[in-house]
Specification:
Helix content: 55-70%
Structural class: alpha+beta
Distance between the termini: 15 Å
Strand content: 5-15%
Order of helices and strands: HHHHHHHEEEEEEEEEEEE
Oligomer: single chain
Largest sheet: 8 strands, antiparallel
Shape: rod-shaped
Length: 437
């Protein structure tokens, strides 16, 4: 990392993950740190479970929002149907009002005829009361001849028949008045019911539209809330990973101090071991230098990149999505920040460590799917996402060398196809990886 610190001194932020003080290290045992690590691991599992639950809720809300939107056509068809019923109802109301007008006119005519006949009948009754029934006989007896008698008899019969017909028509008109009044009452009741139905249909329209808008608003809020929860849990996972990394450093330091104390208690044995260790270290350094030269030449041919301090994790691969804002390929969200670089490589392509360091994450991690994070020291991390199932070749806590195969590319998590998502993080904050490659 000295090479990275020298080349990127202007770009790196202030290191936030500092090692423990000597006083604290002396008071804390390895067993206590292991307990803290175990507790952290439980918190990580709890946080991941909360994040997965939030993502599940997000997907469910998105599903129902899409379903609500798809069902909009059905709602619109129902609205058209109700509008058709309203149009039919309006037609019935118009027809009923016309019938009401006709019936009212017929009622008025019938009542006028009844009133006219009542006056005629009243005058006939007064005449009969004044002249008496004998007047008919007087008319007949005053005939001058038999022919005149017959004529008078026919005339009287016609008068009597007219009176009877008048009475019959009068009775029918009175019955017509009763019937027309009943029809009017029925038609008024029908018109009232039709108006009630019309208002009910209007209420149905308003209710359906309000329900649709309410559902879409609810699912929009649910999606936003679960996105916020997911981001919050993601930040917590980063924090827990940082704490775990710091504890591992502290644990290594305590182990080293304990080894030093044990060595001081046995000076002769320590001196012998130190001499042997020095000899072995010299031999290992020579072998490492030779291996490094060999790896450097092979890496330079295998990994073709820029002038940055990191190796290209998958060689000279096409960049399918650069660092920066974009439209998310899965959610469709516009302006979503893409925190890394996507390299388009086939399924199962070997992924190499960009530099030496300690693995702090080697498991499924949020939308990254199967993921590996390497701590290179000095607050510098690299992240490798969307690794295929069974493709992780390292484990948390393991030391890895520059160029070592750590995983195989895939399409797990929020991904539309096989590729490697590669990030560089300085003090946990994602930065553009390209200047480092």
């Amino acid at each position: 990392m000295k090479k990275i610190a020298a080349g990127l001194a202007a770009a790196l932020l202030v290191v936030t993950l500092v090692g423990p003080s000597d006083g604290y290290a002396k008071k804390t045992s390895v067993a206590e740190i292991d307990k803290q690590l175990k507790k952290l691991q439980q918190e990580v599992q709890t946080t991941k479970a909360a994040q997965e639950k939030a993502e599940s809720r997000n997907q469910e809300a998105q599903h129902y929002k899409n379903k609500t939107t798809l069902n909009l056509q059905l709602v619109l068809e129902q609205i058209d149907q109700v509008k058709g019923e309203m149009k039919t109802t309006s037609g019935k109301i118009a027809s009923t009002e016309e019938s009401l007008n006709v019936t009212a006119a017929e009622l008025d005519e019938a009542e006028a005829r009844v009133a006219s006949r009542e006056k005629l009948l009243e005058s006939r009754v007064r005449l009969m009361y004044t002249d008496g029934a004998v007047s008919y006989l007087d008319v007949l007896l005053s005939s001058k001849s038999f022919a005149d008698f017959l004529d008078r008899a026919d005339s009287l019969k016609m008068i009597v028949d007219q009176d009877q017909d008048l009475l019959v028509q009068h009775k029918l008109d009175k019955q017509t008045v009763i019937v027309k009044k009943q029809e009017l009452e029925g038609q008024y009741a029908q018109a009232k019911q039709l108006y009630t139905n019309l208002e009910s249909q209007r209420s149905v329209l308003k209710e359906r539209e309000a329900q649709r808008q309410e559902l879409i608003a609810y699912y929009d809020k649910e999606i936003q809330d679960t996105d916020d929860i997911s981001e919050e849990q993601n930040a917590k996972l980063v924090q827990l990973a940082s704490e775990r990394s710091a504890l591992e450093v502290q644990k290594d330091k305590i182990k080293a101090e304990e080894a030093a104390r044990r060595a001081a208690a046995a000076k002769a044995e320590a001196a012998r071991r130190a001499a042997a260790a020095a000899a072995r270290a010299k031999e290992a350094a020579s072998a490492s230098s030779s291996s490094s030269d060999s790896n450097s030449s092979s890496s330079s041919s295998e990994y073709v990149g820029g002038s940055g301090p990191f190796l290209m994790p998958v060689g000279q691969a096409r960049i399918s999505s650069p660092f920066g804002p974009r439209t998310h390929p899965v959610t469709g969200e516009v302006g979503k920040m893409h925190t890394g670089v996507d390299f388009a490589v086939p399924q199962g392509t070997s992924i190499h460590a960009a530099d030496s360091g300690t693995v702090i994450i080697a498991e499924w991690w949020s939308g990254y799917g199967n993921c590996v994070i390497i701590d290179h020291g000095g607050g510098v991390w690299t992240l490798y996402g969307h690794i295929r199932e069974g493709g992780i070749k390292v484990r948390a806590g393991e030391k890895v060398e520059r160029g070592q195969v750590i995983a195989e590319s895939g399409s797990t998590g929020r991904s539309t196809g096989p590729h490697l998502h590669f990030e560089v993080r300085i003090d946990q904050k994602a930065v553009n990886p390209m200047p480092y490659l």
